[in-house]
Amino acid sequence: MARGLTFFSIAVLAAVVSICHAAIAPEDYWKMMLPNTPMPNSIRERLQPDIIDEKTGTSVNVGKGGVNVNTGKGKPQGGTTVGVGRKGVGVNTGHGNTHVNVGKGGVNVNTGHKGKPVVVNVKPGKSPFIYNYAASEDQLHDDPNVALFFLEKDLHQGTKLNLFFPKATKSPKFLPRSEANKIPFSSSKFPEILKQFSVERDSQEAQSMMETIKQCEEPAIKGEAKQCLTSLESMVDFARTRLGTPVKALATEVKKETVKQQYTIAPGVHKLASTKSVACHSENYVYAVYYCHETSGTSAYVVPLVGADRTRVDAVAVCHKDTSQWNPKHVAFNVLKVKPGSVPICHFIPEDHLVWVQN
After folding, report:
1. 256 burial via Cβ count (<10 Å: 0-12, 13-18, 19+)
2. With left for phi above 0 and alpha for psi between -120 and 50, is residue 266 left, alpha or beta?
3. Separation CA 273–CA 190 (nearest Å)
4. What does the buried/exposed string (b/e) look like for 115-133 if buried means 16 or more CB atoms within 10 Å of the residue's CB?
5. Which distant-in-sequence residues (6+ apart) come within 8 Å of 206 by Cβ?
6. I need a surface site. Which of 84, 190, 192, 327 has the fewest CB within 10 A?
7. Where are the beta strands (DSSP E) in 206-339?
8. What is the DSSP secondary structure assignment for residue 358, as one 8-state letter?
C-alpha cells in the first residue's frame, strides 16, 4: 500500500509541476483574451474534460479543486484516496477506481475500469447549420434542430413557433489546446483516432465521428470562412481573427429542460449592432469540436421566448440575408418552403452553440 501511495504521490506531483509549466488553462485563456466577456454557462460546463488512457483505465479531467488520488478496484467509493488542496493532504484507503483531474483546483487521479469519453447524440447525420448539404428524410423527421429555422419577417413580438431547446448537460468536454493539438483530426488518420479512443470501427459512434470530420474537411461555400476547432482557446483565436477585437460571445440560455412546445416571442427582441458575426456549432465527437464559420450578410439577435409551460428561453438567432449559395435541398428550404436567395432565413442556435459578435 505504501509503495502504491508513493507511486501516485510522485505521479500527482509530476502532474502538478507539468501543469505549472504548461499552457494556460482554457478558462484562464478566455479571461486573458476576453476580460470583459462573460463565459456562457453552457461553455463553462464543458471545461472539465475526461481523458482516459485505454491501457490503464486512467482518466484525466481539467477542473477546479485540489489534488485527489483514488486507486484500486471494486466499489466506486473504495480504494486509496489522497487529497491535496488548500486545506492540506488527506489519505483514505479502501477499494475503488482512480481518476485524474487537473485544473484551477488542482489534480485528481482515478484509475479503474476501462472507458472513454462519451459521444452524445451519436446518430450519424449532416448538421443543419452547414449549408452545402442536402437534407435527408431522416433529418427532416428526426432532427430537433430542424424546427429552429424560421423567416426573418416573423421575428417580432407575438410570433408563435414550435421549438425544442434541449439542455446541454451531456455535451462532450473541451480538451486543453495543448492536449487537443496532439490528437490527429483528419479522415486519413481515422483508424488511428478510433484506436486511440477504443471506438469500434463499425459502430454508430464511429460513423458519427467520421461524419464530423468529413464535414470539417469539405470546402467552404462562397462568401464563407470556416474552420473546425478542437479547443476553446482555438475558438477564441478564430473569432478574434475574423472579427477583430474586442469581441463577445452569445449563447442561448435555457432555464430548464423542456419538451418540444409552442413558444411565443416576447417583448424585447434585440438586434446586435455588429455588422459581422461568427457562428460556432457543436459537433458530434468524443471531445468538444466546434464548426465555426463567418458568412457574409448576417445579423444576430437576442430573442426572448416564453413557452406554453411558461419556461423562458433567452435565445440567440442568426439571420442570413443571402442564401443563394446554399444547397437547394438544404433542410431550411424544405421546412420553410422557400427557394435559395429568395428571402432572409433565420435560425435559433442550440444552448451549447455560440455566436461571436464585435463588442
Report:
1. exposed
2. beta
3. 42
4. ebbebbebeebbbbbbbbb
5. 194, 199, 200
6. 192
7. 224-229, 247-250, 253-254, 261-265, 270-271, 277-282, 290-295, 298-307, 312-320
8. E
C-alpha 249/C-alpha 175 separation (Å) is 19
Residue 220's identity, in one-letter code, is A
Other beta carbons within 10 Å of 209: 25
Cis check for the bond before 172: say yes or no (omega within 30 of 0): no
Q: Half-sphere exposure of residue 160, counting CA atoms within 13 Å on the CB side?
A: 4
State the sign of the Cα–Cα–Cα–Cα dihedral 135, 211, 44, 91: positive
Q: What's this model's pTM, rounded to 2 decimal places?
A: 0.72
Nearest residue to 300 via CA among 238, 222, 356, 226: 356
Query: Which one of 84-98, 152-166, 326-340 scores highest in mean pLDDT?
Result: 152-166
pLDDT in tens, 14-55: 343 344 335 689 999 999 999 999 999 989 999 864 444 434
- What is the rounded distance in angstroms from the CA atom of residue 44 to the CA atom of residue 253? 13
Question: String of b and e for 162-188 (b: at least 16 CB within 10 Å)?
Answer: ebebbbbeebbbbbbbebbeebebeee
**Residue with C-alpha cell 428550404?**
333
Sign of CA dihedral 347, 317, 221, 235: negative
Q: What is the pLDDT of residues 334-352, one digit of tens each?
A: 889 999 999 999 999 999 8
Whole-number Å distance between alpha carbons of 204 and 199:
10
Residue, of 72 and 34, whose pLDDT is higher: 34
Which residue shows C-alpha cell 483508424?
191
Please state the domain extents for the chain. 2-33+50-111, 137-358
Residue 129 near residue 280 (C-beta atoms within 8 A): no
Q: Are 81 and 66 in contact (CB under 8 A)?
A: no
One DSSP character per residue, 107-155 reads EEEEE-S---PPPSS------TTSTTSPPPHHHHHH-GGGGGEEEGGG-
DSSP state for residue 313 in the 8-state scheme? E
